[in-house]
């Protein structure tokens, strides 16, 4: 069976105030064309269909158009909700839409009830495992401590148990939205850290033929059977080196996997440039970036006048300006943003305690801080569900 694996559409999201709706519509057209041209037998969409729980009307209309076009192809589509989606909203009308061959899986309780499709070699069971917020689903899955690994492992136990009841030779595909160990993150993903741990081991998905992952925006292979498709469009300058694509996956009669990447159309290349303002304006080597969306990091020791206005004269699509003045080693005047770079909320809070008190938190205090952050994330998730 030939699958097309995609995820993280983030319909309704902009890129540094630039609307991406037209580019997202172009991607949907590309997706439909790919399904038709490559004789795809099933499409899997691994979460974050929308960018937020209450998407703008234009994003909903684009999603509606995508559903109609996929249904018109007569090719089944299996889709799960991600951490950006409102599972309840995305799942409205799922039973009715199911009749058109669009299978929305947004309920954790239904994770072990597969969509069963068949090809010349027999059945393929597709299990939709939507984003699982540990604090909200731990009781349902009977785990004592809220954590991503615990709830995903419990859900996968149910999936493997159901798969064991199926006819011998039944192949299996799991759609999941999670941060798996070994995956490379970008600045675009919303933090899903719980209990101080965001990542889960790839071994959680043992026992299935293919795990189609969503959440991380870079296309990547964790194992031959566990892959991220990545987002079809860039949503931060940290994705400047990404090659946006989908996975075209062939699942043979014995469940062996072969996969190739199918590139996605990107409206404009991304470029990150660095130097003093005068260097950026004069360097002939940067001429190739004049049509790109540009993030410029200025290293001038003193902030120059009207830097963005001057930059856009040469780089008309410059969108982001970062100041990182070059200073002598040991200079204490380092920007606040630079001091916080690559530090988690937990680490920042612990640094604040050390700054105020003169000593960092002890083990008990670190646990209290971690539980406080987890409670805030759970509260945010509950508010999104209630919207």
Strand and helix map with partners:
Blueprint: E1 2-6, E2 14-15, E3 18-19, H1 21-37, E4 42-46, H2 57-73, E5 77-80, H3 87-90, H4 94-98, E6 102-105, E7 115-119, E8 122-129, H5 134-141, H6 148-164, E9 171-177, E10 179-180, E11 199-200, E12 210-214, E13 220-223, E14 226-228, E15 245-251, E16 257-263, E17 270-275, H7 277-282, E18 293-298, H8 307-314, E19 318-323, H9 336-340, H10 345-357, H11 363-386
Parallel strand pairs: 1-4, 4-5, 5-6, 8-9, 9-12, 10-11, 12-14, 17-18, 18-19
Antiparallel strand pairs: 1-15, 2-3, 7-8, 13-14, 15-16
Helix pairs in contact: 1-2, 5-6, 10-11
Description:
By secondary structure, this protein is α/β, with parallel strands linked by helices. The protein has 2 domains: 2-263, 4-Layer Sandwich (Purple Acid Phosphatase, chain A, domain 2); 270-326, no CATH class. The protein is 32% helix and 23% strand. It has 11 helices and 19 strands. The strands form 5 sheets. The chain has a 6-stranded mixed β-sheet. The chain starts with a strand and ends with a helix.
Task: Considering the chains and any ligands shown, give keywords for the structure.
globular; six-stranded mixed β-sheet; Metallo-depent_PP-like; 11 helices; 3'-5' exonuclease activity; alpha/beta; 32% helix; Purple Acid Phosphatase, chain A, domain 2; 19 strands; 387 residues; Nuclease SbcCD subunit D; exonuclease; 2 domains
């Amino acid at each position: 069976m030939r699958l097309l694996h995609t995820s993280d559409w983030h319909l309704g999201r902009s890129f540094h105030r630039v609307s991406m709706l037209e580019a997202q519509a172009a991607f949907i057209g590309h997706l439909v064309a790919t399904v038709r041209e490559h004789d795809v037998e099933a499409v899997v969409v691994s979460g974050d269909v929308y960018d937020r729980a209450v998407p703008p009307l234009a994003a909903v209309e684009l999603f509606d158009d995508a559903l109609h076009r996929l249904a018109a192809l007569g090719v089944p589509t299996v889709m799960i909700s991600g951490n950006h989606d409102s599972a309840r909203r995305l799942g409205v009308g799922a039973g009715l839409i199911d009749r058109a061959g669009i299978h929305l899986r947004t309920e954790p309780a239904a994770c072990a009830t597969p969509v069963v499709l068949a090809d010349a070699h027999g059945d393929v069971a597709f299990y939709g495992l939507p984003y699982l917020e540990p604090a909200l689903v731990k009781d349902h899955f009977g785990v004592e401590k809220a954590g991503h690994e615990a709830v995903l492992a419990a859900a996968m136990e149910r999936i493997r148990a159901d798969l064991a009841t199926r006819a011998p030779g039944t192949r299996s595909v799991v759609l999941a939205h999670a941060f798996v160990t070994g995956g490379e993150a970008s600045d675009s993903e919303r933090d899903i850290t719980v209990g101080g741990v965001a990542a889960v081991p790839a071994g959680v998905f043992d026992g299935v033929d293919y795990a189609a992952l969503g959440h991380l925006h870079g296309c990547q292979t964790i194992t031959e059977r566990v892959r991220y498709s990545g987002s079809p469009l860039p949503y931060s300058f940290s994705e400047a080196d990404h090659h946006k694509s989908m996975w075209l996956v062939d699942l043979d009669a014995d469940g062996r996997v072969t996969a190739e990447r199918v590139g996605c159309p990107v409206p404009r290349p991304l470029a990150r440039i660095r130097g003093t303002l005068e260097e950026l304006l004069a360097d002939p080597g940067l001429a190739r970036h004049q049509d790109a969306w540009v993030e410029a990091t200025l290293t001038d020791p003193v902030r120059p006048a009207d830097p963005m206005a001057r930059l856009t004269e040469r780089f008309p699509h410059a969108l982001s300006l970062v100041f990182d003045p070059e200073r002598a080693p040991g200079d204490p005047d380092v920007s606040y943003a630079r001091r916080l770079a690559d530090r988690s909320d937990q680490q920042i809070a612990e640094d604040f305690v050390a700054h105020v008190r003169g000593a960092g938190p002890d083990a008990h205090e670190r646990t209290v801080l971690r539980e406080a952050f987890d409670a805030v994330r759970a509260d945010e998730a509950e508010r999104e569900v209630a919207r």
